[in-house]
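Saturday, quiet lab. Running sequence design on the structure tokens for the scaffold JK sent over.
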């Protein structure tokens, strides 16, 4: 890492979100091996959150897209399959929390709060807030880098919310439970 004039390293805190790993026994990535791989790439203070591919680390200040691409390449070399990786500056995650996008939503055993992380600024076609025809899925807010949504799983016939997200915003996204996002900022 580069040093600034005072001799200290210029680094930033980042969060990487890997898409589609450790789901249904497919694309298995043990978190210890992932942590080790990232440390070998030169990242510091690497911590994983859950097994769904959430990693917090320190790295030389860089473009998040380039960081994601370098992690994707190394993942493919190490584990033998591609895994789309979206990298966010840690401050962006803190801003998501500060938005308090789910304020006023009553969480019950049937309500899920989700954040869909975007790789680029979205071109929004839907009227936001959006409510699905069966009212089981709502998109509350869309920012330059995330979609905040609520899903009711009360009815077993609940629509496939991800198909709506992918149709409107593309497949170059990954979704996390709001609780996971909140865990990231306290690790």
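Result came back. Writing it out in full:
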């Amino acid at each position: 890492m580069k040093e600034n004039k005072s001799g200290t390293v210029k680094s930033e805190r980042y969060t990487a979100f890997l898409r589609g790993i450790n789901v249904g026994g497919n694309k298995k990535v043990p978190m210890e091996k992932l942590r080790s791989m990232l440390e070998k790439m030169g990242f510091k203070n690497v911590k994983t959150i859950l097994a769904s591919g959430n990693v917090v680390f320190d790295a030389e200040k860089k473009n998040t897209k380039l960081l994601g691409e370098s992690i994707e390449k190394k993942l493919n070399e190490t584990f033998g399959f591609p895994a789309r990786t979206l990298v966010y500056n840690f401050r962006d995650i803190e801003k998501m929390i500060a938005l308090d996008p789910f304020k006023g939503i009553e969480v019950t055993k049937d309500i899920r709060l989700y954040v869909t992380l975007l790789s680029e600024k979205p071109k929004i076609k839907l009227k936001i807030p959006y409510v699905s025809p069966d009212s089981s899925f709502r998109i509350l807010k869309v920012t330059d880098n995330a979609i905040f949504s609520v899903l009711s799983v009360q009815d077993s016939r609940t629509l496939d919310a991800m198909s709506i997200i992918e149709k409107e915003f593309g497949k170059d996204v990954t979704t996390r439970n709001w609780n996971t996002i909140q865990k990231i900022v306290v690790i």
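Notes for JK: The helical segments are 31-40, 64-79, 90-99, 161-169, 178-186. The chain is about 30% helix and 30% strand. Ask whether to fix the surface positions before the next round.
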